[in-house]
Structure of Hermansky-Pudlak syndrome 6 protein homolog:
Amino acid sequence: MKRAATLRLLSDLSNFSGAARLRELLAADPAVRVRCSPDGRHLLLLRPPGAPAPQLLVAVRGLGEELERAWPAGHPSPLDAFFLPWPVRPALVLVWESGLAEVWGAGVGPGWRLLQSTELCPGGGSRVVAVAAPRGRLVWCEEPPADAEGGVPPAAAAFSHCVCVRTLEPSGETGSNLGRPHILLHHCPPFRLLASRKDLFLVPTATTLPGVSHILLIWSPGKGKVTVAAPSLRLSYSKSLNPGRGDTWDFRTLLRGLPGLLSPRQPWTVHTWAPTPQGLLLLDFRGTVSLVQSHGGTRAVGTLQEAPVGLAGSAALGTFHGTLACVLGSTLELLDMGSGQLLERKVLSTDRVHLLEPLAPGTKDEEEMETRGGLRLLSALGLFQVVWEAPQTLELPSAEDLVFEEACEYYQRRSLRGAQLTPEELRQNNVFRAPQALASILQGHVSPSTLLTTLRAELRDYRSLEQLKAQLVAGDEEEAGWTELAEQEVARLLRTELTGDQLAQLNTIFQALPTAAWGAILRALQLQPDGNGRLRSQAPPDVWKKVLGGTAVGKEPPNGVLPLFELLCQCLCQLEPRWLPPFVELAQQQGGPGWGTGGPGPPLYRRALAVLGEEGTRPEALELELLLGSGRPKAVLQAVGQLVKKGQWERALESGLALGHSSPLLRSEIFKLLLAEFAQHRQLDAHLPLLCRLCPPDLAPAELLLLLQTHLPDGSEPPTPFPEPGAEPPLTVGLLRALLEQTGAKRQPSGPVLSLYEDILWDPGTPPPTPPRGPMTPLQASDHPGPGAWAPS
């Protein structure tokens, strides 16, 4: 049975102070502006400028005195008035076009009293064209004083306004504190300001320049950002705007930095704006109601049966419990906000009806309204509430019954058999476990809060996925849509066990959209370059274990499906080959041996080399980098051997030095390999300092000479002092001395000489002093000097 909407009378206004004046103003003036205090106890009525007295009336429900103000001719009435959500006492602020602001309070002593009066525009001459009072702030749009010479061009005059803000907070029991003014926007067109509970909407007016009249701004003070949206273009951008940090924006500069916003568009034809907790509702002249959300997105809510006729007709919009209420003249239409379906249409007895703002959360009346459900309407006849009532004869099914009934319809649509599924069959059949699991949750095994916490991420992903599918079907931004869809699907598959169909699906995504798939992997592994040509990751070990998993030893991937690690290596070879070696090196640091392979398995560098192709067909540079970065002795020696064959001596020496002293045996093997080349030719002479640094510290000079002797070229021919023309110069003692000094300096003995070659290393380099000699006498040829003749005198 269909539910019905009922108008319930809450008050005939007799319990409000000044009830007679309240009914009179509501019945006499259709243009009166009505506001309700956050606690629901006060009603404010403000008549437009030029209306007969009184122009302001504040009525109180229950005990309390009303506030009634009138301004004589020549003294303009306030531009707007707002209640302030102060918890201590009720308060309101009045703002004039001249920039005068008055704060009034009640609750301290009898009646209302003026708490503070100040000028919003201290410079004078400026005119306030719009004002709003979001929580704890006062925001206004002001127009600068007109130029005395009147020489301002029309284009400059169209962007001459600015939007300013001041904090407004209570101070003690009898005062208020109005902060310093701060400019949010300057050089902007005139805006109308509409405040909801969390956001402030800056919407274009009738005088806004047509080129920017399709743009609106949404300022979120709690998030410290402003969203620039063009709903007709489906564009929205966010920028930082925090007055606490001194942020301010030039409107023209802001738009120039956001591409696509200034595309030629027809200005909006909006009849009515209405801020709500869900966002900003707007009604156009075709009767279509749309919702602009705080992030800038816009969606159509529904279309009214009756469209507004011209600007003169009155209209009011509001929401309650997923229902849109629209009062157009004397007609009330209720639409479902999810489907846009018309739920009910009522004809009211008057066309002067005002929808009141929702009550502040936490108030007693608000809790009562929420339990009964409803939206408040105010007219001269009284204060009413729109509520939904179900007939007493209607028996609502239990949550478990609803689960199995919906599951029957779902499975029946997917089933190929002709037999009809029944809820009883689903209850007894263990094949369909999802409805049984959900029914057990609804029976109370899991609390609703725990269930919501568990499913929040899944529901958010599912909702965004459905929105993305609808966008792709509509053909909007297909390239970006496919990219986002691939990223979401890769992220979903990484949360599953990558076996069989999941791995095959992942291979398909990488083949179709490799860039988008790699972007999802970057976020999952949290990969970042460290500035030294290496990669670092902050992903947990479980993610890396899934990435490094492979097939068992000796088994090829089924049907050509690559494991995830090989898939990533293949993708990197296509997109950024230079990052493949750092990625493999990082993977070797992260994972244990044979993760996910059921055994030891091949090392990761071999798995990466297998992706590059067969030996001899691989890119030489990538193969060298993978071998050198593997850390395996055989692989490093293989790489150094390839470098030696190519004559890249400096790279070979640096590869050995990069191992450090943690691999002495591997360094010693590389040194011996290069020493053999040093003994046979002179191409390493220019890199002798690096070869000396690579020399093992425990190598003795004798061992060095024996190694050299082993690799010296055959000396079958007698040595010559100079080499033949074109022949390789032989190894000389001068070249060998640096190596001998390197080995001898580390093994200098403190006792007697240990080797017959080591004495030349400790030779100080200067001969001993010459002993003094005396006069010598000539000897005869026949004389044979004795031993005493050589003694010094």
Notes: The chain has 22 helices and 33 strands.
